[in-house]
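I'll show a typical protein example:
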Amino acid sequence: QVQLVESGGDLVQPGGSLRLSCTASGSIFSIYAMGWYRQAPGKQRELVASITSGGSTNYADSVKGRFTISRENAKNTVYLQMNSLKPEDTAVYYCTARGTYYSGTNFGSWGQGTQVTVSS
C-alpha cells in the first residue's frame, strides 16, 4: 500500500499565501505523476495541478499564475505554492500519486486531505 500525507492547510485572508506539501510512502518503485485536487462543500472534486517525474506541469485555468506545483522526486514529495488566494479557493485539498510498485503493478493513491479556508 501507498500512503500520502498532506500538510500546510490553514485559514488565510484573501490575497494571502500557503504552501501545501505531500509525501508518499510505501513499497514504491517509482512515481510518474503527482497532483492536487480540491473539493468544496456541495461541489465536485476538481484537478488543481499536476506534475510528472520529468517536471511537466498542468494547471486548472482558475489557478494559473497564482499556484505553482513542484516535486522533490528523491523524497517522493510534492508541493503546492498558493499565492493571491481567493475565497473561491476554499476547499479540502487532496494529494494524489500514480506510479508502480517494485513488482511492476501500477497504483493510484489519495491522501486524507488538508483544509484551506480563505476568508476575512
